[in-house]
């Protein structure tokens, strides 16, 4: 029994449910192009295109153009040679390409897609973006916690998770960690099924999958597509796929073929070979249909790119007409021929009727906007809980941060050990200030540069965040807040506390409790400010080296204008304002004033410069 059939959870009005998209599974002979009373129970797309600006920005590059069709409940495959636009079309249909770029209309059950369609549809990305340090069950529970309506009880959520685990055959590995690049977890097939399960939690009526068989061995790939076939009995599944073997191809209900961004076939998968044969491309008896189709399309594409390449091309794959006319036309011909086919005309006619009905309904043609299923507070709690669990499951970076901080504190403590109380030897009188300022400078430097470890904070999980945010798990602010708070408490604040205690007492700084807390607060603030700079670069950069270099540049400039290496008054006037941006300046000044203001130091000893050699002097230094 499918997940959908057993669903007992009431929809509490937060996530619109669009009802069944139709009972047919695409194998009932109706096919995607049939005209009939069920035609609106589907996803239809009308003249869909996608363009991106070129590098020079003045012109646009067309990635897909004028794609129209109908996807009914069943397994709808998008196929085509590499770079033909499968993923782009899938993303446009799933409303994942933003506002600029896509054109055309996508309708669900004959109505315009709701705003935030992402919240009510499922999308499984090619790379299986799931948290590796959590188990299969924990990942599914995370999805259930955020994507089921807020009125859902804890038991109902658990029940839904259990059912998905059973449905997808994940019972034996439910408690196993998914795994990541550092440690092995579940198998590739189990990981893919977990990704599918993350989306099935919300029982989407439309499920998109980008190349779900990539990276899987042949047997696992077949079992995953068989699973999808079973799930497609009650929902529309649209998947892009590159070159499936026959056992997978035979499971498809409908097939959409793309060539260089245009559709060259859209109809029942079983009719594609007769269609190609009618164009003069007969498939050999034992040839895999998918291989054959891609060979034909690739050959035609190559042919249209350059007539020179036809010399090296396997012309046996061309139709009779192409062989006779010496190879003109190519992919353009395939598009033109499809547009002249009965299949295309039938689809257009049916789409026309759907469109007409939409226009008759006037303004009521859009489905109610979908929203986030849970409140911002709940999202923050759930995402933060996952961050904390993830941190403690993989605590190496946390331990390392603490160990490095302790080592640095001990080094500073040893080098500047016992800077002395009130009384110092006369020959050290000059060192009272310089040693302290030197120690404070190194403390600030340590606090600032140790935050370089935060450059990965937003880069490491960027892909996961983009996917989850695009799928309507949580808001951007929720992710930002949860990541920052977890990182600050665990990796910034706790190590500073240790560092402060060790250095303060080893250096024997002023023992007044108030001064110790100001010292601690100053180091906290320096550390947090440096972390904030690193977070900013981590958010805007896509790769760690760029974020690291930008952070290092900011810190070095901050150090330069901190007043330690050069007196700020010696700087050129037009550069002096930079001191206001220097973390080091604020940190150094605060620590120095805290330690030195109002203190008195006594120096006593033998004065060698005195003409009277036995004279003893005492100096009182008041600051
Ligand atoms: N934002 C973009 N800017 C420039 N070119 C793009 C952009 N997005 C896609 N393309 C180009 O559009 C074409 C189609 O890309 P798409 O990823 O949709 O193809 P695909 O059929 O899924 O390919 P594959 O099978 O290799 O994954 C490719 O040539 C790609 O380089």
From TrEMBL:
Keywords of the record: ATP-binding, Membrane, Nucleotide-binding, Transmembrane, Transmembrane helix, Transport
UniProt domain ABC transporter: residue ranges: 43-285
Domain of life (superkingdom): Eukaryota
Record-linked SUPFAM superfamilies: P-loop containing nucleoside triphosphate hydrolases
Gene3D superfamilies cross-referenced by the UniProt entry: P-loop containing nucleotide triphosphate hydrolases
Gene Ontology MF annotations: ABC-type transporter activity; ATP binding; ATP hydrolysis activity; efflux transmembrane transporter activity; organic anion transmembrane transporter activity
Compartments in which it is found: Membrane
Residues annotated as transmembrane: 398-417, 437-459, 479-505, 517-537, 549-568
GO cellular-component term (any): apical plasma membrane
Region entry Disordered, spans: 1-39
Entry similarity comment: Belongs to the ABC transporter superfamily. ABCG family. Eye pigment precursor importer (TC 3.A.1.204) subfamily.
Protein's name according to its UniProt entry: Broad substrate specificity ATP-binding cassette transporter ABCG2
Organism of this sequence: Geodia barretti (Barrett's horny sponge)
């Amino acid at each position: 029994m499918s997940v959908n059939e057993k669903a007992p959870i009431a929809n509490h009005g937060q996530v619109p449910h669009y009802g069944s998209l139709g009972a047919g599974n695409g194998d009932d002979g109706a096919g995607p192009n049939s005209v009939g009373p069920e035609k609106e129970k589907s996803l239809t797309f009308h003249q869909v295109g996608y363009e991106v600006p070129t590098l020079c920005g003045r012109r646009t590059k067309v990635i897909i153009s004028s794609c129209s069709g109908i996807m009914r409940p069943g397994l709808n495959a998008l196929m085509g040679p590499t770079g033909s636009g499968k993923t782009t079309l899938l993303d446009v249909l799933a409303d994942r390409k933003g506002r600029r770029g896509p054109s055309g209309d996508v309708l669900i059950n004959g109505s315009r897609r709701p705003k935030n369609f992402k919240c009510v549809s499922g999308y499984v990305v090619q790379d299986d973006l799931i948290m590796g340090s959590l188990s299969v069950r924990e990942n599914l529970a995370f999805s259930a916690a955020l994507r089921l309506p807020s009125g859902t009880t804890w038991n109902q959520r658990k029940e839904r998770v259990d059912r998905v685990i059973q449905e997808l055959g994940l019972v034996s590995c439910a408690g196993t960690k998914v795994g990541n690049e550092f440690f092995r977890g579940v198998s590739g097939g189990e990981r893919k099924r977990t990704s599918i399960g993350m989306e099935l939690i919300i029982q989407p009526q439309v499920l998109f999958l980008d190349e779900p068989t990539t990276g899987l061995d042949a047997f696992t790939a077949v079992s995953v597509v068989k699973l999808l076939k079973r799930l497609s009995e009650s929902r529309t599944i649209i998947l892009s796929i590159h070159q499936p073997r026959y056992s997978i191809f035979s499971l498809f209900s409908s097939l959409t073929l793309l060539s260089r961004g245009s559709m060259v076939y859209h109809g029942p998968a079983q009719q594609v070979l007769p269609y190609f044969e009618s164009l003069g491309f007969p498939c050999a008896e034992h040839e895999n249909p998918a291989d054959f189709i891609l060979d034909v399309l690739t050959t035609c594409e190559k042919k249209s790119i350059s007539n020179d390449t036809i010399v090296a091309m396997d012309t046996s794959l061309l139709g009779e007409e192409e062989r006779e006319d010496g190879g003109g036309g190519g992919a353009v011909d395939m598009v033109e021929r499809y547009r002249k086919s009965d299949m295309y005309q039938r689809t257009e006619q049916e789409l026309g009727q759907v469109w007409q009905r939409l226009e008759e309904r006037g303004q009521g043609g859009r489905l109610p906007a979908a929203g986030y299923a849970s409140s911002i507070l709940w999202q923050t709690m759930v995402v933060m809980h996952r961050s904390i669990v993830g941190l403690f499951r993989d605590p190496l970076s946390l331990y390392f941060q603490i160990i490095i901080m302790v080592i640095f504190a001990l080094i500073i403590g040893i080098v500047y050990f016992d800077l002395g109380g009130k009384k110092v030897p006369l020959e050290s009188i000059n060192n009272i200030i310089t040693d302290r300022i030197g120690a404070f400078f190194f403390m600030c430097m340590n606090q600032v540069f140790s935050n370089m470890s935060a450059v990965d904070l937003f880069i490491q999980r960027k892909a996961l965040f983009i996917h989850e945010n695009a799928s309507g798990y949580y808001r951007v602010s929720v992710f930002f807040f949860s990541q920052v708070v977890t990182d600050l408490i665990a990796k910034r604040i706790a190590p500073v506390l240790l560092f402060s205690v060790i250095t303060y007492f080893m250096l024997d700084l002023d023992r007044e409790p108030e001064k110790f807390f100001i010292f601690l607060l100053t180091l906290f603030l320096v550390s947090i400010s440096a972390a904030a700079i690193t977070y900013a670069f981590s958010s805007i950069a896509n790769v760690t080296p760029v974020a690291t270099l930008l952070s290092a540049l900011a810190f070095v400039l901050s150090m330069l204008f901190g007043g330690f290496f050069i007196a700020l008054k010696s700087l050129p006037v037009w550069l002096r304002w930079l001191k206001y941006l220097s973390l080091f300046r604020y940190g150094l000044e605060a620590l120095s004033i805290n330690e030195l203001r109002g203190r008195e130091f006594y120096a006593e000893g033998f004065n060698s410069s005195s003409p009277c050699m036995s004279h003893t002097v005492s100096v009182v230094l008041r600051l």
